[in-house]
UniProtKB/TrEMBL annotation, chains A, B:
SUPFAM superfamilies: Winged helix' DNA-binding domain (SSF46785). Signal peptide: none annotated. Transmembrane segments: none annotated. PANTHER family: TRANSCRIPTIONAL REGULATOR, MARR FAMILY, TRANSCRIPTIONAL REPRESSOR MPRA. Gene3D superfamilies: Winged helix-like DNA-binding domain superfamily/Winged helix DNA-binding domain. Residues 184-195 have a biased composition (Basic residues). It comes from the Bacteria. Residues 21-154 form the HTH marR-type domain. Residues 163-195 are annotated as: Disordered. InterPro entries: HTH_MarR-typ, MarR/SlyA-like, Tscrpt_reg_MarR-type_CS, WH-like_DNA-bd_sf, WH_DNA-bd_sf. PROSITE patterns: HTH_MARR_1, HTH_MARR_2. Keywords: DNA-binding, Transcription, Transcription regulation. This is MarR family transcriptional regulator.
Length: 195, 195
């Protein structure tokens, strides 16, 4: 069976031209779908989704094992509503507890618990052994993938990409190119290829 | 604001090592999310999702503007249940009609209608003008992205990737490496990073 994605490119070129970009976008979305499936497959054994795992990991990375929910969402580059639902689940599993900020009671912190820390360690060991879901690619390939990704994210003004800075508290902007927040928000919300 | 993905890599390296693959996978998933957001943003103006657009496009590419639902699912690399729901929507919009196969009445075909063909032409013109959602990348970059994608898909035994062949009708297998169907299926079903 020939690769349906390659086949699609030929049709596209015959009909409209632009088959290269059409193939690249379809390949990329396919790879991310497979990668996600592999990661989710590993994490499911620990009762985690990738989003929950990423949130937990981030908390264990932070100096005091806790972060304000707003900061957590910023670093995960997800919508506040998603942070809430992820943290709800993690609290339910007792991997995370909600605690008030020591000086500003209006700020709610998510703090990772001992069992949350343990599950991150166990899941991460398996994720690392599985090379984060990758196969068939060398370290150089991964560096190339990162460089292309960063170039794309810069060009579309993604949050935190090299050439941009969005800091709500200071209003300071970096590189000078404006970040199209509506576009970023749309990308955050549109997380799945729904039917 | 530094890139949260870059920052995560440093933490990962300090804690466990393996930061390269961790960054690459997070970058890739982020890019695919942004790309999908851009494509969905364009297609929403036409009342289409990417999945519906891809199905419609594929039908217009086929010689008789029709395909059996099973074939449609195979070429789109999606689950039969997803094909059904996509075709249901397209029928509702009158972009597609369901017709019985001329010789085998058990086989149902999806056939693109005149208005379905028109919407594909209009949407594709915009998609092409937007370089299929890409920005900041040269044609060489896109070829690199494709090559890396194909190498990954080969390594994990994705359907239709260079080194594999899965053809239910003949039972012939290509490259010799077994396709892990359960893994492919899992990737198909797991389409979103759910909370």
């Amino acid at each position: 069976m020939t690769d349906p994605i390659r086949e699609m490119r030929d049709h596209w070129d015959e009909r409209w031209g632009g088959g290269l970009a059409a193939e690249a976008s379809t390949q990329l979305l396919r790879v991310s779908q497979l990668l996600l499936g592999r990661l989710d497959g590993i994490l499911a054994e620990f009762g985690l989704t990738l989003a929950r795992y990423e949130a937990l990991t981030l908390l264990t990375f932070s100096r005091k094992s806790e972060l304000p929910l707003s900061k957590l969402g910023e670093r995960l580059m997800i919508h506040p509503a998603s942070v809430t639902s992820i943290v709800d689940k993690l609290v339910e599993f007792e991997y995370v507890e909600r605690v008030p900020h020591h000086s500003d009671r209006r700020v709610v912190l998510a703090r990772v618990t001992t069992s949350g820390r343990q599950i991150v360690e166990r899941a991460s060991a398996v994720i690392i052994a599985a090379n984060n879901g990758f196969a068939g690619l060398t370290d150089d390939d991964l560096e190339t993938l990162i460089a292309l990704s960063v170039r794309f994210r810069d060009a579309v003004g993604d949050v935190g990409s090299t050439d941009n800075s969005v800091d709500g508290s200071t209003g300071v902007k970096g590189g000078g190119r404006r970040v199209d927040q509506s576009r970023v928000r749309r990308a955050r919300i549109t997380r799945s290829r729904s039917a």
